[in-house]
Structures are given as structure tokens and as C-alpha cells.
Design goal:
Length: 350
Amino acid sequence: MAFLMGGCTVPLAQPSASPTTLPAAVPGLDLPAQQLPVTWSSLHLSGQLVYLAGSQQNANPDVTLESLDLASGIITPLFTAAPPGWIYGASVSPDEKLVVLSYATPKAFAALYALPMDGSGPPSLLLPPPTNLDQFTEPVWSVDGRYIYYVHVNFGQLSGKQKLPAYEIERMAYPGGAPERLLANAYWPRISPDGSRMVYVSQNPNDGSNQLFTANADGSNPKQIKLSGPAVFSIIDAPVFLPDGKTILFSAPAPALSSAPDWMDWLLGVQPASAHNVISEWWSVPMTGGTPSQLTHIQSPSLYGCVSPNGEQVASFSGNGIFVMQPDGSGLSMIVKDVGGIAGTVDWIR
């Protein structure tokens, strides 16, 4: 179903290159490695991208967590969800030893799991939802690795004229901490580079409209980022701090394409926010507010970004593939052409 909701495909340019020999299967893993032509070699990128990708091998699509070595082009599969299970999001710990997954098994709603980054074992359950009307999604680590932030979605008490589920941003101390509620009617938490602030999306429970907010890392002192100018955004997604710690990158449809979620999204179980499947662009705005700047013209669904370890580039997951760009949106280059049209996440590690 996520494939059907992935939106239209708009090609992003990628230079051609001669194929190289595929490496052998990775020892200890059931899935073979692959190798992409390093068509981005002129960018001198280093580190690894850890991201989700979908494939239609059987009647039900598979979702795999993969790692791409940017120097060699080798893709290493880390874990595949058993169909019809699904991985909704993944976040690599600051020490790069563990991945926290929002993972729905074939028999249960999305819970939080921990997966060894080296593929040495299967996911282990970190935090199960309290009832079968709850799920946990959008996990991210704190900068110091002491907390896992996530979104608690409850479908038991639908509110507003659109009958929207309840969203709360929570966190748990790692390891072994108890859930701590931070913010109501909120999702998409991301932490600032210095670890002091959180940016997130606040949702009006009556009509589903979105606003950008920041708060302290513990959820205190929330402040709206007031957007000015001619563009009006009823849908805002996947905000993240840019390297300067003062500018917010966020995804939103061009104003002419913006629309509120409808009941079909909730019926089909589309993850928050449903806008994540809407054709969108990257925008930036100062944390203090102001007129957003449109950085891209790519018309792509499912945008989710992360900053490179050196702070010089932004990697963007999209339903059309994974690309990198400068923080101002320039120099856009495709890295992974095909992620199966799904919504997903990407992390850039050393």
C-alpha cells in the first residue's frame, strides 16, 4: 500500500557511468551486497548513507534497511522486514553502533526496535505500544545518545472534523528508560546540532493544518516559527536544523499544491504526516521566523533530510531516490536512483 501512496515520479538528473563488478555476498548476512557506479566521485563524498528501500519481490513489497558506502558504491543490506511487516523509520545512534527502528511486524503495530549496525543480530524490542490502537514512529537520537525521541500515535480517540488520531512527541532515556511525554499534537522531532533545541511540527487537531515550532530538548519553552510572505503552508513535513543551528530546512508542497489530509489517508494507515506522500519541495527559514526560501524545484514526495558529518552537504531521501545538495539547495546530485517509491528516512554517518 505504501507503494501506491508514494506519489508521482519525477526524474532527477544523474550522469551515466560504466558498471563495475559486484562484490561477493557479505559474510554473516542472508542478502547479497550490491555495488553502484560511483557517478558522484567528483563530489568527493565520504562516509555511509543508511536508508530504507523497497522492492516488489513477492505479492507483498519488502522494505530493507541498507547502508551505502559513498567511496566504493557498495550497498550492504542490514535488515529486511518480513512481509507484510514494514519499517517506517530508522535512526543511527551517535556512536554508530545501533539503529533504532520504527518496525511493524506482520502481527503488530509499529514499535521501537534496536538493531546492531554491524548486522550481528536481529532487531530487539525496545518499546512496545501500550495497546493495539497505538504505534511508535519517527525515531531520532539525541546528539549525546542519551535519549531516543519518537512520535506516539493513538487511533483510539479521533478528533476534529477530519477525525485525526492523536500525536505526541515522547522520549525515552537509553538504555532502559521509561516513556516521557513532551509535546501534544506534535510530530517530526529533530534535535539541533548542539543538542539544546528541538524543531518539530505542531498539528491543529481540528483541521490538520501544520505549524513549525521549536522547543528546548526536554519539550519546554515551545515557540512557533512564524512564517511570513505570500506562501501559505497548511502542510509542513520533516524539519531539520541546518549546520549553522539557526536555519530550519523543511518539506512542503508548493502553495498551489498544498492540501489538507483526507480520510482516505487515515483509513489506509498512512504514517504521519500524510503530507509526507504529497509532491513537495525543500524550503528553508530562519529559526526566528520570516519568509521561507524555496530551495528546490523537484516535485518529489516523501522528502526527509539529514546533514553530512562535515556539515557541507544535505542528503535527501525522496520517493524518487536519494540525492545530495548544498544546504542552500544548489549542486543537487542523484546518488541512489531507486528506493521503490516508498516513504523512508536517511542518515549520513562517518
